[in-house]
Input
Amino acid sequence: MTFRIRGLDARQFSHLFTLSDAELAAQGAVRKIADGPSPCRVSLTDATPGDEVILVNYEHHAVESPYRMRFAIYVREGEETFDAVNTVPDQLRRRTLAVRAFDEYGMMTGWELIEGIWLEEAIDTAVRRSARPISACSFRRARLLRGQGGTGMSGAPHQ
Output
């Protein structure tokens, strides 16, 4: 099966890096200096100790269902959105991942806690369950990217 993994759009976070700490706080975000491998949800790479990151709350499953979800994510300035077909970034391979599948109504149809080295298999399973992509890191069949609608799944690396 062909799949695509895509980080979050960098443009939606770039303004945060121009804000003062007080302005960030007013938006529920904080500027931090990474003291370990903080996972950037744009580039799907880890910040190294000393890198500046913004920790911000992000709604990754904006649906009208009990499964509506938001959580804190890290983003780094100047990063490009990861976007690749049949490629799993190292950041995801090195982590335990919570993989969730949702139907067209935003209801969970399946979940699995996996090691990142098994991500391709989990994507294949979720797509077969007719899930759709909705997450801080989304996965979907590559053929569906041309506006064909359809299936996919979400995965959020545990920190």
About this structure: The radius of gyration is 16 Å. The chain has two domains: 3-7+83-157, 10-75. The chain has three helices and nine strands.
